[in-house]
Amino acid sequence: MVSINNLSVQFGGTPLFDHVSFIINDKDRIGLVGKNGAGKSTLLKIIKGIQAADEGEVVIPSMHLIGYLPQEMDVTSEKTVFEEALTAFSEIITLREKIATLEQDLKSR
Predict the structure, then answer these.
(1) Per-residue pLDDT tens digits for 7-23
(2) Is the Cβ–Cβ distance between 9 and 59 less than 8 Å?
(3) DSSP secondary structure code for residue 72 in this structure
(4) Which residues are within 8 A (CB) of 25 and not within 5 positions of it... i.e. 6 or more apart?
(5) Which of 25, 70, 76, 91 is the residue whose CA sits 20 to 30 A from 48?
(6) pTM, entire model
(7) How does residue 74 score in pLDDT terms, banded at 50, 70 and 90?
(8) Residue 109 carries which DSSP code?
(9) Neighbours of 29 (CB within 10 A)
């Protein structure tokens, strides 16, 4: 469960959002919608830890991994869209490769 508690963000003294709180449970599937400038990307960056909120906290259990694919990408990248999306899961992919290697080692012994 990811818990967002009393998040507040202001830009130039104007509140983007003020004391926002919600919980994302393990099996929840959510959509984040709103007009341009409503704070969707800012909220995601705060949850990922890329940006700090003015107030409030984000609580993410240590067993959870948050992936984030930026809205604006490096246009010089040679990666396909799918390959770029997979970079959000690079740690998981690396762990799976290590598991496969260990399983092979166990089989050969």
Answers:
(1) 999 988 888 989 999 99
(2) no
(3) S
(4) 1
(5) 76
(6) 0.65
(7) low
(8) -
(9) 5
**Under CATH, domain 1-64 is a member of which superfamily?**
P-loop containing nucleotide triphosphate hydrolases (3.40.50.300)
Q: What is the spatial distance between Cα 12 and Cα 55, in angstroms, rounded to a whole number? A: 15
Residues 6+ apart with CB under 8 A from 6: 19, 20, 21, 55, 56, 57
* Residue 14 neighbours by CB under 8 Å, 6+ apart: none
Distance CA 9, CA 53 (A): 5
CB 86, CB 93: distance < 8 Å: yes
Domain boundaries, the chain: 1-64, 69-109
